[in-house]
Automatic annotation (TrEMBL):
Keywords: Metal-binding, Zinc, Zinc-finger. The lineage of its organism: Eukaryota, Viridiplantae, Streptophyta, Embryophyta, Tracheophyta. NCBIfam families: ZF_HD_prot_N. InterPro entries: ZF_HD_homeobox_Cys/His_dimer. GO terms for molecular function: DNA-binding transcription factor activity; transcription cis-regulatory region binding; zinc ion binding. GO terms for cellular component: nucleus. It comes from the Eukaryota. Coiled coil: none annotated. The keyword Phosphoprotein does not apply. Pfam families: ZF-HD_dimer. This is Mini zinc finger protein. PANTHER family: MINI ZINC FINGER PROTEIN 3, ZINC-FINGER HOMEODOMAIN PROTEIN 2.
Length: 86
């Protein structure tokens, strides 16, 4: 199983080849929306903190790039939204 790296809010071309040897490029825009971390899981409840969008607390390539500046959660707790266009 290989590890995938996704860049936040960046258009990246993705090449896909079909069986007829024709190719096209798909532009993918990835952003991370509201936080889904259950803050009350340890006491058996359900409560989210209300963070509406992921904002990186550091520069790309650092460990702070995966931590939200607003709520302090890891980027994986935020809803991933992918927009594809061709």
């Amino acid at each position: 199983m290989s590890k995938r790296i996704v860049v936040l809010k960046r258009n990246e071309p993705v090449s896909r080849n079909s069986c007829t040897t024709s190719s096209f490029t798909v532009m993918r825009n990835v952003r991370y929306g509201h936080c889904q971390k259950n803050q009350a899981a340890s006491i058996g409840g359900y409560a989210v903190d209300g963070c509406r969008e992921f904002m990186a607390s550091g520069e790309e390539g650092t460990s702070g790039a995966l931590t939200c500046a607003a709520c302090g959660c890891h980027r994986n707790f935020h809803r991933r939204e992918v927009e594809e266009g061709g």
